[in-house]
What we know:
Elements: H1 3-13, E1 19-22, H2 24-27, H3 31-45, E2 50-54, E3 67-71
Antiparallel strand pairs: 1-3, 2-3
Amino acid sequence: MNILNQVSAKIAALDSGEQWILTPQNLWMSRADFQSLSVYLSQYANQGNYSINCAKQSSAWLGHTSLTVIKH
Length: 72
């Protein structure tokens, strides 16, 4: 199973209000791949099933090394 399917399945399995913190280290991926995944997840967060918070208080997504996914 590829990483995108794993992440999607994990998000789908979360209960409402549950959070999951993603980092490149716990996903065993490079920082560049994690940045691509972050962009992908932020695009799909617009559908309203979950939201994403960055670890840093900055408007730029790129460069972050952790994301918190919150299931709605």
